[in-house]
Amino acid sequence: MTGPPTPPPGEKTPMAVGDMSPEGSTTVVPLKQPELDAADKKVLCSAMCQCQTQPNIGADGRRLKQECVSSRLKALDEALKYTSPYKAEYTYDMTKRPPEPFLDKEIPTKGRTLWRGWTSTLWPQDPTRPQPYVANRGYTRRPDVVIVNDPSKPPTQDNIKQVVEMKFPDDKYRLGQRQAYIKIAGAPNKMVPLDLKQCDCDRPEPKPTKLPVEQLGPAAAAAGIIYMIVTKRPPPGGVPAF
């Protein structure tokens, strides 16, 4: 794996205060870049690698790689009855402290379906929000992926393990995007960028170790399911059940 990605323009690398230097001044050292767990990285990289070569194709012929990843992770969530630990493109209300996800009225672990013009009907229902909704003011944000600690609970800040921003070649941060995702996550070390080059897409899939189901966590089980969703074939060694 290469070193930490360079921060986007206008943003500084997080710093930590270290030991005192011999001259009596404080030594400032960069904080270690947060990383994904191996199982989480496998799931997200599986989708990224496949979508790099087999992206969704838009009506205008564009190769929609990020939309491809999102659709696969959403299919995973649906297959798991909205108890996947990976929540793709959930919309957060940034006017709340902490930011709150828009959730389905009946399924609290499912993102609310937002339609064209929803800001003129749904947004005004809460008078504490700025009125009216104005686009491009940062009132809402939609992270690529939110990983939750407990998939049976909503992706609110107290249940967020990490917020992941996935970057394909030539993808860049939009203005204020990184800081907004830190606000959603609740801490700088819970916001993790995942660059395609970190995924080793050219490396062959290792042969899986066959373990009893009880020794496999939800992320490992999800890895097998996402493999099927992405590649349309069973994973080597079979899929562990929850």
Describe the structure.
Helix 1 runs parallel beside helix 4 (218-231) and helix 2 packs across helix 4. The chain has a four-stranded mixed β-sheet. It starts with 14 loop residues before the first strand and ends in an 11-residue tail after the last helix. It is globular. The chain has four helices and eleven strands. Residues 1-23, 25-30, 208-216 and 236-242 have low confidence and may be disordered. It is of the alpha+beta class and 242 residues long. It has one domain.
List its traits.
11 strands, alpha+beta, disordered C terminus, disordered N terminus, 242 residues, three-stranded antiparallel beta sheet, globular, single chain
Q: Would you spell out the secondary-structure blueprint of this structure?
A:
Layout: E1 15-20, E2 26-30, H1 38-53, E3 56-57, E4 63-64, H2 65-79, E5 86-88, E6 92-93, E7 100-101, E8 140-141, E9 145-148, E10 160-167, H3 177-185, E11 191-195, H4 218-231
Parallel strand pairs: 10-11
Antiparallel strand pairs: 1-2, 3-4, 5-9, 6-7, 6-8, 9-10
